Amino acid sequence: MLGVDGGEVMNLINKSALRRHILLRAQALRIHKFTRVSDDALVLMEVSLRRQADELIRSHPAKGMTIKP
User: Cα 14–19–20 angle (5° rounding)?
Assistant: First the structure.
């Protein structure tokens, strides 16, 4: 994934921990047993997290130094 300036973007998620979490939640929520999580699913989660962070920043008032929900 490339950043705005064309450089590499750091990963915001721990992919192995997220995979484990998704598989555990799938086991709890679904009857079918899932055994794998695709890379596309992890990219989708990372993009979603980035969008949420951008929205949090945009919705914050112009004053203050701490970003809060």
Answer: 100
* pTM, two decimal places: 0.78
Tokens at 8, concatenated:
């590499």
8 DSSP β-pair partners: 2
Handedness of CA 22, 24, 28, 31 (dihedral sign): positive
CA 67 to chain centroid: 18
Comparing CA positions, the residue from 46, 53, 54 lying closest to residue 19 is 46
Other CB atoms within 10 Å distance of the CB of residue 33: 8
Location of structure tokens 């596309």:
40
pLDDT over 90 for what percent of the chain?
A: 71
